[in-house]
């Protein structure tokens, strides 16, 4: 079990918190919105690596078009330093990036909808640079919608009043804007070469409907499309198998869900195939909004993808195979969880999905790659000041082993706004 040292702590106060609705639906309410400039700006790569610099964020949104109130607190966070950029439950950072994780929030929400990410030094000093707003399309994990690149960062962004409704935005390591994608970005995932693979829809403001076919786009760190494949159907999730660089796309708009594999050149490896496997007779219908899925998790072998419906593990999909297999017992026996790969791929940390009871974020289980339990690690209890109560809301473990805990702060001299505490242990599970 890990030996906990002193945690790094930060606390933040925020205004009213709300959650984003689906960006495509929001677009219908902005009939007169301006079309954004989509050409990536020119610029060279940073002369220095982003060593010791991390992006920190907390969900602060404005209640505007496409927004709905949410009494809960969204804290999509967690950082890791992983040169291979695996799809961990936590933000996987590019080579040279620090894993000191935390979050920040402005006391007032801006006119833009999204999660604001600010840059901090490894020591926790604010750099006074904001990347926001970034949209969290999958609240269980971070990588599909915000991740580092070889130049800096890329994330899915929804700016109220601008079209397309949601784009892939690229920043360099200092937070400078590099450009936005021209297509409506549905989902993204980091690639091993420091870019992204994106599911993106053609967009034409003069056409009804304005959103056209879905493409599978490979982009570089500047956000430029290097290759593209037009897809049939409307897949909405994807992940790359890092060992082969094959890409799995998943369409949850159909019943049953269906999936398809593509190689690194964009050629299809399989036809569409149904995903029917279910745990203990559960339904494969899309989960309600209160869940945090569906999502795809690359397992430690770097070739097998596990599928969660946001409540249970329902299937595994093996690289290049036109079929699914039932999820193994070690996964199905742990419903309501997600995984983070730790110890350089030699184990997992089992983390509770968001929206659970506080005690689920006070300890976590460690597994071997085969799913055998190594026991549980209990997170040291916080010592709140001034009569406050800190209630854990989320745990994340990044690829470098940094453990990150988010808590709600209440009581003492605090008002009724959202107040948060953030604690992290650098490279605890490395």
**CATH structural class:** Mainly Beta
Q: Architecture, according to CATH?
A: 7 Propeller
Q: Ends: how far apart?
A: 12 Å
For the secondary structure, the number of strands is 33
Kindly give the count of domains. 1
C-alpha geometry: globular
Mean of residue pLDDT values: 74
User: Considering DSSP H and I runs of 4 or more, what fraction of the residues is helical?
Assistant: under 10%
Portion in strands: 35-45%
Taking Cα atoms only, what radius of gyration do you get, to the nearest Å?
20 Å
Explained architecture:
This protein has helices at 23-27, 329-332, and strands at residues 8-14, 18-20, 34-35, 53-59, 67-69, 79-81, 91-93, 115-121, 126-130, 146-148, 152-157, 162-163, 167-172, 177-180, 184-190, 196-203, 211-219, 225-231, 237-241, 246-251, 257-262, 273-275, 295-298, 304-308, 313-318, 324-325, 337-342, 347-352, 363-367, 373-378, 388-397, 403-411, 418-425. It has 430 residues and is mainly β. It has one domain (19-28, 49-425): 7 Propeller (Methylamine Dehydrogenase, Chain H), CATH 2.130.10. The strands form 10 sheets. The chain has a 4-stranded antiparallel sheet, with no helix packed on it. Strand 20 (246-251) and strand 21 (257-262) form a beta hairpin. The longest helix has 5 residues, at 23-27. The protein is globular.
Summarize the structure.
This protein has about 425 residues and is an all-beta fold. The chain contains two helices and 33 strands. It has one domain: YVTN repeat-like/Quinoprotein amine dehydrogenase (Methylamine Dehydrogenase, Chain H).
Chart the SSEs and their pairings.
Elements: E1 8-14, E2 18-20, H1 23-27, E3 34-35, E4 53-59, E5 67-69, E6 79-81, E7 91-93, E8 115-121, E9 126-130, E10 146-148, E11 152-157, E12 162-163, E13 167-172, E14 177-180, E15 184-190, E16 196-203, E17 211-219, E18 225-231, E19 237-241, E20 246-251, E21 257-262, E22 273-275, E23 295-298, E24 304-308, E25 313-318, E26 324-325, H2 329-332, E27 337-342, E28 347-352, E29 363-367, E30 373-378, E31 388-397, E32 403-411, E33 418-425
Parallel strand pairs: 3-12, 6-7
Antiparallel strand pairs: 1-33, 2-5, 4-8, 8-9, 10-11, 11-13, 13-14, 15-16, 16-17, 17-18, 19-20, 20-21, 21-22, 23-24, 24-25, 25-26, 27-28, 28-29, 29-30, 31-32, 32-33
């Amino acid at each position: 079990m890990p030996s906990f040292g002193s945690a790094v702590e930060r606390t933040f106060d925020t205004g009213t918190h709300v959650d984003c609705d689906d960006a495509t639906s929001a677009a219908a309410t902005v009939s007169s919105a301006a079309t954004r400039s989509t050409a990536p700006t020119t610029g060279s790569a940073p002369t220095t690596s982003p060593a010791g610099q991390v992006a920190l964020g907390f969900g602060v949104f404005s209640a505007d078009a496409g927004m709905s109130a949410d009494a809960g607190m969204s804290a999509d966070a967690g950082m890791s330093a992983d040169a291979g950029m695996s799809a961990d439950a936590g933000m996987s950072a590019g080579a040279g990036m620090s894993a000191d994780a935390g979050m920040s929030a402005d006391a007032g929400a801006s006119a833009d909808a999204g999660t604001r990410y600010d840059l901090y030094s490894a020591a926790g000093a604010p750099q006074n640079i904001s990347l926001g707003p970034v949209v969290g399309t999958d609240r269980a994990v971070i990588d599909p919608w915000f991740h580092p690149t070889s130049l800096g960062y890329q994330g899915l962004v929804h700016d109220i009043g601008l079209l397309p409704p949601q784009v892939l935005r690229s920043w360099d390591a200092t937070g400078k804007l590099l450009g936005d994608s021209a297509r409506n970005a549905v989902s993204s995932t980091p690639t091993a070469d420091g870019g992204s693979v994106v599911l993106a829809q053609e967009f034409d403001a003069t056409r009804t409907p304005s959103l056209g076919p879905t493409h599978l786009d490979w982009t570089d760190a500047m956000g430029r499309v290097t290759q593209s494949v037009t897809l049939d159907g409307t897949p909405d999730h994807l992940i790359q198998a890092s060992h082969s660089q094959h890409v799995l796309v998943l369409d949850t708009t159909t019943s049953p869900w269906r999936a398809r594999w593509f190689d690194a050149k964009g050629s299809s490896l399989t036809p569409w195939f149904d995903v029917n496997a279910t745990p203990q007779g559960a339904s494969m219908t899309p989960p309600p909004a209160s869940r945090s899925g569906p999502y795809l998790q690359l397992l430690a072998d770097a070739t097998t993808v596990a599928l969660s419906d946001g409540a249970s593990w329902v299937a595994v999909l093996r690289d290049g195979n036109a079929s699914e297999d039932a999820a193994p017992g070690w996964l199905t026996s742990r419903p309501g969880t997600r995984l983070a790969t730790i110890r350089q791929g030699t184990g997992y940390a089992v983390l509770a999905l968001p929206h659970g009871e506080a005690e689920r974020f006070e300890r976590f289980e460690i597994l071997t790659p085969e799913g055998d339990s190594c026991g549980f690690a209990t997170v040291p209890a916080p010592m709140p000041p001034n009569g406050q109560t800190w209630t854990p809301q989320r745990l994340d473990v990044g690829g470098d082993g940094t453990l990150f805990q988010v808590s709600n702060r209440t009581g003492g001299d605090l008002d009724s706004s959202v107040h948060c505490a953030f604690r992290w242990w650098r490279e605890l599970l490395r």
